[in-house]
Amino acid sequence: MNPQDITSKNLCLGCGLCVAQGHAEKLEWNSDGFLIPTGSHPHNASIATEQICPGVLVDLPATPGSDPLWGYTEEIVVAHSTHKGVRQNGSSGGIVTELARQFLLHGLVDGVIHVVSDSSDPFLNRAVISTTLEQIESGASSRYAPASSLQVLTPELLQTSAKYLLVGKPCDISGLRNLQATDPRWKSKIPFTIAIFCAGMPSREGTIALVKKLGLSGDTSKVKYRGDGWPGKFIAWNELGESVSTSYSDSWGSTLNRFLHPRCKICPDGIGLQADFSVGDAWETQDGYPDFHDREGESLVLVRTKECHSLFHSWITEGAIELVGQRNREYLETIQKFQAQRRIFARYRWIGWTLGGGFKPRFRGVFGAGSYRFTEFSSGLRQLMGTLKRSKKLHS
Ligand SMILES: Cc1cc2nc3c(=O)[nH]c(=O)nc-3n(C[C@H](O)[C@H](O)[C@H](O)COP(=O)(O)OP(=O)(O)OC[C@H]3O[C@@H](n4cnc5c(N)ncnc54)[C@H](O)[C@@H]3O)c2cc1C
Ligand code: SF4
Ligand code: SF4
């Protein structure tokens, strides 16, 4: 299987790992506004693409004590950065940026691999290796658009002694885990990972449609999806410095989520089951639903390893992070309903996708016992039928 086969089966997430590893030449936009690998192998790749590609392989080893929906956690907390700017610019409580800063400040890594907006193209996000606090901070905030987080994981990176932290979506972390399983040198190269919660990656066309709907004239020079408050606004600027904006619930709820990648619709893990830290929004709730009124940001943090648990608490003691409080799985099901449902129905959707003619991705260890809940069976069947229909349409 080569990257183009994966693309043609609608399973390529544009992470860039196959390009970095020499299975394809470059990433390009397709007509739907997603990044896809193109070009033939510039040099011989020793590993098969399907062994590393997160679009077709998610492989979670069993960990005793794992929750069927939320995976293994040492602790579930709500917290925020105590740095005013980091908290304000972050998507939620600036925890991802603060953790990255602390990993660097304590010499645990030499750099942070994460994505930033490309200054030459407002609709493009690219992976960088940040080695200063300023560079790390420049990557703050969520970008609801394609981002090739793994394009910097080239074999050349293994030639140095530097160690890195990887920040990415759950599928980005899966790609790294796949790579680490094929070549253990990547385990010591990237010893720490942070996943952001992810409900799906909208295409570049999603952002373009939103800017158009908001009526920005001329060429777009910059877009910002969130930050500057919580959840913060979507803002787009043109070259004259004029701007248009809308709320997070409008940008995501009325436009961006209509442009999601087909692979995201069958994603079994939007909560970073394979990461050391998983970070999302610690939404307040109103009548059982997330309340998107603007306030000071707070992040939901799932700490998944013993080592990171002790690091996290040492950074609380040092005053870099403020702990708002501990939480339990019932709280998660209330504030992250979408993610809970996705975990419960992942297997049904996967079956629907394959029955509809889609290529069968290997999702191992990610269908928790939650997906067998008897009470969810009839809703599960509805999910299966819906996915089957969509899959048939895509693959006929
Ligand atoms: C596509 C998408 C879907 C999301 N879905 C959910 C959801 O379902 N539930 C939820 O609670 N939160 C969701 N979020 C928000 C995300 O989980 C928050 O960014 C998280 O709360 C971290 O906030 P923070 O303030 O701690 O991070 P910040 O300090 O703002 O740092 C954010 C980090 O994420 C990285 N990043 C931003 N965009 C991307 C991207 N597209 N790909 C890879 N890395 C990126 C940045 O490089 C930065 O390092 C989503 C974000 C994105 C981009
Ligand atoms: S490795 Fe990444 S870019 Fe390559 S085919 Fe898979 S998802 Fe697409
Ligand atoms: S929904 Fe899943 S597959 Fe899609 S971008 Fe998010 S983590 Fe990746």
* Largest beta-sheet details: 9 strands, mixed
Structural class: alpha/beta
Cα distance spanning the termini: 20 Å
Q: CATH topology of the domain at 75-202 and 260-336, anyone?
A: Aspartate Aminotransferase, domain 2
> If classified by CATH, what would the architecture of the domain at 75-202 and 260-336 be?
3-Layer(aba) Sandwich
Query: Count the strands?
Result: 18
Q: On the 0-100 scale, what is the average pLDDT?
A: 93
Helix content estimate? 25-40%
CATH class of the domain at 75-202 and 260-336: Alpha Beta
Biggest sheet, strands in spatial order? 7-6-5-8-9-13-16-4-17
Number of helices: 14
- Rough outline: globular
Describe the structure.
- Helix content is 33%, strand content 22%.
- Helix 6 (133-137) links the parallel strand 6 (121-130) and strand 7.
- By secondary structure, the chain is α/β, with parallel strands linked by helices.
- It has 14 helices and 18 strands.
- It is globular and about 55 Å long.
- It has a domain at 75-202 and 260-336: Aspartate Aminotransferase, domain 2, CATH 3.40.640.
- Bound molecules: flavin-adenine dinucleotide (FAD) and iron/sulfur cluster (2 copies).
- One iron/sulfur cluster (SF4) binds at residues 3, 6, 12-18, 37, 53-55.
What are the key terms here?
single chain; 396 residues; alpha/beta; Aspartate Aminotransferase, domain 2; nine-stranded mixed sheet; three-stranded antiparallel sheet; 14 helices; 18 strands; binds flavin-adenine dinucleotide; binds iron/sulfur cluster
Layout of strands and helices, then pairs:
Blueprint: H1 3-8, H2 17-20, E1 26-29, E2 35-38, H3 49-52, E3 57-59, E4 75-81, H4 84-89, H5 95-105, E5 111-118, E6 121-130, H6 133-137, E7 147-148, E8 164-168, H7 170-182, H8 185-189, E9 192-196, H9 204-214, E10 220-224, E11 234-238, E12 243-246, H10 248-255, E13 277-281, E14 284-286, E15 289-291, E16 299-303, H11 306-317, E17 321-326, H12 329-335, H13 337-355, E18 362-364, H14 377-395
Parallel strand pairs: 3-18, 5-8, 6-7, 8-9, 9-13
Antiparallel strand pairs: 1-2, 4-16, 4-17, 5-6, 10-11, 11-12, 13-16, 14-15
This protein binds flavin-adenine dinucleotide and iron/sulfur cluster (2 copies).
One iron/sulfur cluster binds at residues 13, 169-171, 198, 200-201, 261, 263-264, 267, 270.
